Task: structure prediction
Amino acid sequence: MKLDDIFGQDETVERLKSYVSSGNLPHLLFTGPPGVGKTASAVSLAREMFGENWNENFTELNASDERGIDVVRNKIKTFAKTAPIGNASFKIIFLDEADALTSDAQAALRRTMERYSQNCRFILSCNYSSKIIEPIQSRCAVYRFSSLSDDSVKARLKYIANEENISINDDGLDALVYVSRGDMRKAVNSLQAAAFLDQNIDRETVFQITSTAHPDDIKKLIETAVSGKFFEARELLQKTVFDQGLSADDVLGQIYRALFDLELTDSEMIYLIDKLGEIDFRITEGANEKLQLEALIAHFSLMRSND
Result:
């Protein structure tokens, strides 16, 4: 893979190419949502920087598996202090999911980054830059990866489908974009799973294989609840969510997205999103999913009567 193969991050890719052409590299911090090209960019950068023998001067560690201070003191420091191989002027350590590092490990890492910067460069990747301590952020050039646009995801899925001789109609493509929410990895995995089920992929196949509620059903659920028909909405909730064994977290995300397709006043939207956030927090803390989702539609049903 080359940097030119990274989709939807044109500005970032151009800046990374400038490092390759100059032959030099600062410490880098890649931050952004999952599946947008952070890991692919790091590996592609190393490939283009070092050529055929890139893996001799490149090592990748996943901080979610090894995140204690011993990893920094042993594995990382041992690799960092050894000289680069061949004609390379430095080596690259790629630390994926760096936001999973403990605070002690990050404190030890910042000194290692400074001490061995002459012959080693660090690329850190994370979903939340706020979990990376400020001293490390100040030592890095920060690149913020955005969620991929629908057009970028569609273009890549069309290319894969064409190469793999998979038939997918426009509704199926739109469904994959809906399910992925800008995550290319999820889009490709969903396409692959759907292809195992049927070589002719449509929207129903995608929703079935990804265990996703149909957007029309979610919209109907919200409209029924907002109109004050609680018991009817409760039956729809049972049929749409619980009978299919769907995740409450995923359903909350779908409800949030569907709210913006409804004709609601500003005050109604504020009220519903506030309740949605409250229910999301309760479920995250371990509350009963069925009870909380029914409480959510109860709030939806009470909204206009409270007004």
